[in-house]
Amino acid sequence: MLTAGVDIGSLATKAVILEAGSGQVLGTACLPGGPRPAELGRAALETALAEADAAREDLSGVVATGYGRQSLPFTRISVTEISCAARGAHFIEPAVRTVIDIGGQDSKVIRCDEEGYPLDFALNDRCAAGTGRFLEVMAGALGTDVEGMSRLAQAADEPARITHTCTVFAESEVVGLLARGAERDAVAGGLCRAVAERTALLARQAGIEPPVMLAGGVGMNRAIAEALRDVLGLKLIVPEEPQLVVATGAAVVAADRETSSAAPREEGRER
Fold first, then answer.
1. Overall number of domains in the chain
2. The Cα angle at residue 141 between residues 139 and 144, in degrees rounded to 5
3. Residue ranges in the chain modelled with pLDDT below 50
4. What is the predicted pLDDT for the residue at 113?
5. Are the C-beta atoms of residues 266 and 242 closer than 8 Å to each other?
6. So what's the pLDDT on residue 159?
7. CATH no. for residue 151?
8. Of 29, 142, 147, 205, which has the highest C-beta tally within 10 A?
9. Are residues 1 and 87 in the same domain?
């Protein structure tokens, strides 16, 4: 049985094709975001299907998630990122009990049970502080891209102190530090540390139970992962493709719904 998960995020659209019987991921796609989520979702799904050497009619179920999940006409059901992140993390590493998911426009921390269902969560969706969009703007202020910013941060001997995580104020702070002669690598290191500290505050709201997995596109930033490990004082599991965790979870949810008539579990309360 083949199922698919499509995750339409603010910066990227992802799709995963899952062979439910074997538990194998047969195809994936990750496309840049844009203003037409339905078209992007369709394109991502077709790209993943091509990699899996499968067709739309081979799919037993498709679940959409992400901010644009309601826009896909070809999906039977949409599910929140909270459930999909938890199910995807459990699929990748069943021991995981806490998922830190840092995406393009929001951050969330989900505490899970032993079967990969959410028990509680904390969510920051009021501003882009500490998210992928924040890092893009800060990288621009440093005259590089996000990957270059990560390399700079890893080279820093002593991170600069960044006092703001609001995107507007932090950009002004970065410009000011550079104008006063601060090294770019130190500023980059300070920015990654600030993101880690803000994320740690959110994690403590939900309650941290190890093992902890870092998911979302920001998980590809090694400097952020290292700073978060340091701030939390915990080992983090970072999957090979953290940006696909939520889409993988959507495909798992699709498989769950095809093989079981059990009602979906209630998610934890939002904070």
1. 2
2. 45
3. 261-271
4. 97
5. no
6. 94
7. 3.30.420.40
8. 29
9. yes
